[in-house]
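Example record for the data management plan.
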Amino acid sequence: MSSQHLEILARRRFLPLFVTQFMGALNDNLFKNALVILVTFRLAAEKGVDAGMMATFATGLFILPFFLFSATAGRLADKFEKQRLIAIIKAAEIAIMLLAGLAFSVGNLTLLMSVLFLMGTHSTFFGPLKYGILPQHLPPEELLSGNAVIEAGTFLAILIGTIAGGLLILTANGILLVVTLEIVVAAAGLLASLFIPRAPAAAPDLKLGLNFLAHGWEMIREAKSQRVIWLAILGISWFWLVGATFLAQFPAFAKTVLGAGNGTVTLMLVAFSVGIAIGSMLCNWLLKGEVSARYVPLGALGISLFTFDLYAATAHMQAGSGVLLDVAGFLARPSAWRVLGDLTMIAVSAGFYIVPLNTLLQARSEESHRSRVIAANNIVNALFMVLGATGAVAMLAFHCSIPQIFLALALLNLPVALYICRLLPETVIKGLVGGLLRLAYGAEVHGLANWPAPGERVVVVANHVSFLDAVLLAALLPGRPTFAVNSF
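Corresponding structural encoding:
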C-alpha cells in the first residue's frame, strides 16, 4: 500500500467510513460463506438439495433487495444527512445478526435464507450512502485513491469473512463462534459509524413516496440521459454479473471438479481477493489519481483471457468418489498452481476494470443526485447479477459443468471487452504503448498537477533528444495531443 493510501486512511474524514464499510463487508461474507459451506458440506445431504444450485440461489437471494429497494435507498441518501442514516443502518445490522444466531441454532434453511435476504437489504441501503459520501469528504485528487482503498478493503473483508465463516462453521462449536463473531463485528461497525464526519443532505426538499418501481425507473432514465454515466453503470453491472457468478461457484467447483475440500475453497478466495486488492492499488498507482477509464479495456480483455485459460485447465477434471483433498494435497497437483494463477490474474484484471468505473460514476454525478445515480447503478447491478445467477442455475439444471459456466462467462465477456475497446481505442493503444515505455525505459511523468484543466490549451515543446519524443508525449500525457512538426 502506497504512502498516499496510508495518508488517506489516517484521516478522520475517511478512516471511520472505511472501518464501517470493512465491518459490513466482513459480516456479509462471514454469514454468507458460513451458510454456503454449511449447505454444501452438511445441509445439502440432510435436506436433499443440490449444493451448487443452492449456492447460486443464495447469491441471487442476497442481491434481490438491491433490485427491490435501491430506489428508496437512493432517495433517502440524498434527502437526509448521511452519517446519521449510516448509524441507523448499522444498528439494524445487530438485530439481523441476532436473528442469524437463531436461524443457525435451529438449522432451518428457510430462516437462514430469510436472514440472507435481510443482509442484502442492509447492504442495499448502505451502498448509496457509502459511495455518495466519499466525494463529500475527499477532494477530487484523492477520490481515485479512496475508491482503490475501499475496493481493496472490501475484498480483504470478503477474504477474512469468508475464511472465518468457512473454517469456523463446521467445527464442534462453530455455530456459537460464528454468531458471536457476527454480533461483535456488527457492533464494531456501529461504533465506527458514530465517528464518520457529518455530510449535509444533498437534496433536503426531495419527496420520498412509496412507488419504488416508478422511482427506480426515473433514476435509471435520468442516468441514461448522461452517456458517460450510463456506460459506467453498464460496465460496473457487467463486472458484478461475472464476479458474483464466479464466487457463487467456488464451493461446488472445489468439491465436484477439483476434488478438494473446504480449505481449497478458502485458498481460491484468498487468490481472488488478493488479486482484486493488487489490481485496485496498481491501477491507482498507474493513474496517479487521475479519474480516467484508460485501463478499463485492458482489464476487460484480461478477464476473458484468464477465464479461457481457467476453463482449459479444468475442462476435463472431475472429482472421484474418494476423500476430498486437503490444501496440501491440492497444491501437490501441478494443475493447482495454474488454477490459482488464473484466478489471481482474473481478479487483478477486475481491479483494473472496476476501480476507475466506480470513481468515474462518483466524479461525473451531480452532488444533488449522486446517491440516486448510485442507487440506479445498484438496481442495474442487481438485475445483471440476477440474470447471471439465473443463467448459472439454468446451465446447472441442464447438467452443464462448472468449467462450462466459466467458459460461457469468458465467451460473453469477450464482446463486452471488444466493445469497450471500440469506445476507447486510443485508451487501449495509449495503455499498451505507455506500459511498454515504462517497462523498457523506466519512463516517468512528473508535475501532472500543473497540467491544464479540460478545455484549456497548452503548448509542449520537445527537446528532440530522440525520435521517441512524439511517442512519449502521446502515450504518457493526458488527452489527445495535436502535433506540429518542423520538417526543416
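Summary line stored alongside the record: The first helix runs from residue 3 to 9.
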